[in-house]
């Protein structure tokens, strides 16, 4: 029996500890927009790829741009105002750089659309942190632009590519645990409540939904597909963003998923996929499982463990690199139609939660 799964495996991915560092084609020159925590982590893994050229980085401040460039060995750095203080914002200088092939965007969510749009309009391929945009309308506009310009665009949902997740899909597809009937997954951490922090700020697209819900959702999306209905409940802060949320997904075949995302508590950070013959539990955080615990029947249980280079981002970076080298405009593992459908789901969830952002009122799409 073969069970359908709804996230594909990259063409180059042949084992569950695959070689991601060796070059797969001509060097690709990268520009990185922003110098914060996720940019630092991902760039550290990017530097491990043999065919990655660290070409340019941009930041709002000269000090941050220069320090980041020096740390990782970028050839060029840009900052707001430029050398004379009168120039364009750093990210615009970067996307206009003819020596940059692909732009990785690691700014707060609310800035994704404008920066990605500028990059695409300047002929650059784009890897953009999740959430791809704030709204489905923004996502639809970017996708249309990328397709019209024949440029690569991908949302950086690295969890789709890591060995633990891909191995779980192989086990499920084999029929070993039978037909999937329900999924339960959670992710979060206790973030100090700070109205000035990106993760809480409405102007930045703050809250648990856009920041981390994509990861619990991934386990349901990959194993059960797009739900027929979604019910969202949650707790909002005084500024109107969700401190935690619960998504209940229902499917036409009777299957269900319960997903929890939170920014104010500790949690198990576990995904469970239950079928008619057995179940799989993740060990380690759901966005990069260090191991899988597979149970079939009542008595049979085994554990499979995984290792990876760096922090685990090399898999998605290899996919972006290979796609660009091959002249592809999107990844079959992280297709643009999935990004749009998930943004539509998040729009619906936000309506139910009562979360709004300044980007909701934009009229330029």
SSE blueprint and pairings:
Layout: E1 28-33, H1 37-46, E2 52-59, H2 62-72, E3 76-79, H3 90-95, E4 102-105, H4 112-121, E5 125-129, H5 136-149, E6 153-156, H6 163-173, E7 180-188, H7 208-212, H8 214-224, E8 229-236, E9 242-250, E10 256-262, E11 271-275, E12 278-283, E13 291-296, E14 300-305, H9 314-325, H10 336-353
Parallel strand pairs: 1-2, 1-4, 2-3, 4-5, 5-6, 7-10
Antiparallel strand pairs: 7-11, 8-9, 9-10, 11-12, 12-13, 13-14
What is this entry, summarized?
With 365 residues, the chain is α/β, with parallel strands linked by helices. Helices cover 30% and strands 24% of the residues.
Task: Walk me through the structure.
The chain is an alpha/beta fold and 365 residues long. It has helices at residues 37-46, 62-72, 90-95, 112-121, 136-149, 163-173, 208-212, 214-224, 314-325, 336-353, and strands at residues 28-33, 52-59, 76-79, 102-105, 125-129, 153-156, 180-188, 229-236, 242-250, 256-262, 271-275, 278-283, 291-296, 300-305. The mean pLDDT is 96.
């Amino acid at each position: 029996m073969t069970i359908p799964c709804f996230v594909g495996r990259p063409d180059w991915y042949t084992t569950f500890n695959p070689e991601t560092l060796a070059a797969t084609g001509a060097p690709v020159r990268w520009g990185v927009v922003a110098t914060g925590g996720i940019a630092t982590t991902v760039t550290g893994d990017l530097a491990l790829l043999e065919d990655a050229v660290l070409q340019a980085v941009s930041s709002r401040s000269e000090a941050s741009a220069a320090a980041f460039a020096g740390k990782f060995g970028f050839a060029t750095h840009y900052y707001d105002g430029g050398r004379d203080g009168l120039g364009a914002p750093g990210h615009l200088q970067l996307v206009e750089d003819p020596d940059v092939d692909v732009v990785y965007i690691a700014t707060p969510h609310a800035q994704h659309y404008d920066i990605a749009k500028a990059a695409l309009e300047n002929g650059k391929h784009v890897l953009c942190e999740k959430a791809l945009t704030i709204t489905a309308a923004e996502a639809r506009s970017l996708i249309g632009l990328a397709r019209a310009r024949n440029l690569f665009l991908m949302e950086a949902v690295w969890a789709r590519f890591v060995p633990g997740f891909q191995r779980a899909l192989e086990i499920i597809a084999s029929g070993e645990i039978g037909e999937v009937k329900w999924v339960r997954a959670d992710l979060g951490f206790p973030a100090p409540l700070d109205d000035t922090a990106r993760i809480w700020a409405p102007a930045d697209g703050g809250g648990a939904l856009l920041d981390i819900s994509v990861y619990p959702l991934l386990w349901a999306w990959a194993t059960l597909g797009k739900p027929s209905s979604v019910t969202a409940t949650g707790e909002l802060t005084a500024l109107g963003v969700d401190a935690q949320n619960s998504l209940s997904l229902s499917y036409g075949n009777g299957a269900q998923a319960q997903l929890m995302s939170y920014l104010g508590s500790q949690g198990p950070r576990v995904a469970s996929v239950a079928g008619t013959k057995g179940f799989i539990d993740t060990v380690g955080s759901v966005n990069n499982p260090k191991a899988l615990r597979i149970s079939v029947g009542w008595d049979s249980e085994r554990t499979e463990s995984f290792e990876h280079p760096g922090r685990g981002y090399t898999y998605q970076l290899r996919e972006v690199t290979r796609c660009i080298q091959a002249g592809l405009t999107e990844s079959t593992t992280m297709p643009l139609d999935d990004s749009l459908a998930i943004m539509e789901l998040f729009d619906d969830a936000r309506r139910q939660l009562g979360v709004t952002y300044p980007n909701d009122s934009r009229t330029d799409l």
